[in-house]
Specification:
The protein is mainly α and 127 residues long. 75% of the residues lie in helices and 0% in strands. Helix 1 crosses helix 5, helix 3 packs across helix 5 and helix 5 packs parallel to helix 7. It is globular.
C-alpha cells in the first residue's frame, strides 16, 4: 500500500470522527493495512488528530475567511485537519507534500471548488 492510499484511509477515519466525535475501532480495523509502516502512519495520524482535535480546529478557524466553522463541509474539515496535523507534527513530511495531497483528496472527495479553498487555507497556514 502506498502513502497516498494510507493518507486516504486516515482521511476516512478523520471524516468519521468529525461526524461522530468518537473513535471507532471497528472502522480503524476495517481500514488497517498489511504494511507495518503504513499502518503506523494511519494509526498515528488518526490518534494524533483525535488528541489534538480542538487545537487543530482552532488553527482551521484562524485561516478560514468569510466562513464560520459550521459552514465548512465536513469532508473539507477532515482534509484540513489531516494536512494541518501532518504539517505541525510530522517533520518527515514536507508541508508542500501535505498540501498537495490535501488538494488531491479534495479533488476526489469534495466539490469542484473545494480544492482551491483548501489550498488557500493551507498555504496561509504554512506562511
Amino acid at each position: 500500500m502506498s502513502r497516498v492510499q494510507s493518507r486516504e484511509n486516515a482521511f476516512k477515519l478523520i471524516f468519521e470522527y468529525c461526524l461522530n466525535k468518537e473513535k471507532n475501532e471497528l472502522t480503524l480495523n476495517e481500514l488497517s493495512v498489511k504494511d507495518k509502516a503504513e499502518e503506523e502512519y494511519i494509526v498515528s495520524v488518526y490518534n494524533g488528530v483525535i488528541k489534538h482535535y480542538d487545537e487543530l480546529v482552532a488553527e482551521v478557524e484562524k485561516y478560514i475567511k468569510n466562513f464560520s466553522l459550521d459552514r465548512i463541509f465536513k469532508v473539507d474539515l477532515a482534509i484540513l485537519l489531516l494536512a494541518i496535523y501532518e504539517i505541525k507534527y510530522m517533520d518527515n513530511i514536507p508541508p508542500a507534500v501535505s498540501i498537495n495531497e490535501a488538494v488531491n483528496l479534495a479533488k476526489t472527495y469534495s466539490t469542484e471548488k473545494s480544492f482551491s479553498y483548501i489550498n488557500g487555507v493551507l498555504s496561509n497556514f504554512v506562511k
